[in-house]
Design a protein that fits this description.
- The strands form 3 sheets. Strands 1, 2, 3, 4, 5, 6, 8 and 11 form an 8-stranded antiparallel beta sheet that branches. A 6-stranded antiparallel beta sheet has the order 9-10-7-14-17-12, covered by helices on one side.
- 7% of the residues lie in helices and 43% in strands.
- The two termini are 38 Å apart.
- The protein has 2 helices and 17 strands.
- It has a single domain, classed as Mitochondrial biogenesis AIM24 (Double-stranded beta-helix, 4-Layer Sandwich), CATH 3.60.160.10.
Length: 246
């Protein structure tokens, strides 16, 4: 058999985490260090690899139920190679150090099992109930594979130059940054979009670090079904109501 498809063979690498192509992650398992991956993200594997659902402590389950933020993970262990992907999203590798990284859990594809995660709240400066935003804080030392809709933008934040980002487009930022949730331009319309502009809540970042933004305000819906209704528009059980993907 002959085909140009054979040019898309496996990319050999000595790295534990390697980008197979912009939308596909290759993870090498050596039998000792496990990898945590998004549930259902495996598209192929080679060798003797086991996949198990990752245990969530009672406090993690309560936090997930209260905030909606958290990771549904599976543990990949054994010896071999695992290929991970999710809805053909662009994949990017980040080395997390002692400074930590804060991320929207929707954009996490995989991470080293020794990293620690906890849910943090970003509150509205107006103190309006329900207008805060919860994010996932990742600490320790290891790699995280992030996903974006398209090629992202990395913006530096310095004491002399702060950055404002649409709260639906933010992917991740340095944990050490100070963050404020900003309402629309006029305080009389804090519960609505900015007039007819379609712009809404923003996150304002101050300090020293970075902010990662994707060129889309939402990801495609998870577990969507063909046809109308909530499952077609937002995925299973209407869980992606923030999405505007058509």
């Amino acid at each position: 058999m002959q085909s140009p498809l054979f040019t898309y063979g496996e990319q050999q690498s000595q790295e534990r985490f390697a980008i197979q192509n912009p939308q596909l992650l290759r993870v090498a398992l050596n039998g000792s260090d496990d990898v945590l991956a998004r549930k259902g993200a495996m598209v192929a594997y080679q060798g003797m690899v086991d996949f198990d659902g990752e245990y969530q402590s009672p406090s993690q389950r309560r936090s997930r139920a209260r905030t909606g933020e958290g990771l549904d993970l599976m543990r990949c262990s054994g010896q071999g190679t695992v290929f991970l992907a999710n809805l053909a999203q662009h994949i990017h590798l980040v080395d997390v150090d002692r400074g930590g990284m804060t991320v929207d859990s929707s954009y996490v594809l995989a991470l080293d099992s020794q990293l620690n995660t906890e849910v943090l709240a970003v509150d509205s400066e107006y103190g309006i109930s329900g207008s805060g935003k919860y994010q996932l804080n990742i600490t320790g030392q290891g790699k995280v594979a992030l996903m974006t809709s398209g090629q992202p933008l990395m913006l530096p934040v310095t004491p002399e130059s702060y950055v404002n980002v649409d709260s639906d487009a933010i992917v991740a930022w340095s944990t050490g940054l100070r963050v404020q949730m900003q309402a629309p331009t006029t305080s009389t319309s804090v519960r609505t979009r900015r007039g007819s502009t379609g712009e809404g809540w923003e996150l304002s970042f101050l300090g020293q670090g970075f902010v990662l933004v994707q060129p889309s305000e939402v990801m495609p819906p998870q577990n969507a079904s063909i046809g109308g209704g909530l499952r077609g528009q937002f995925g299973a059980d209407g869980q992606n109501r923030n999405n505007a993907w058509n």
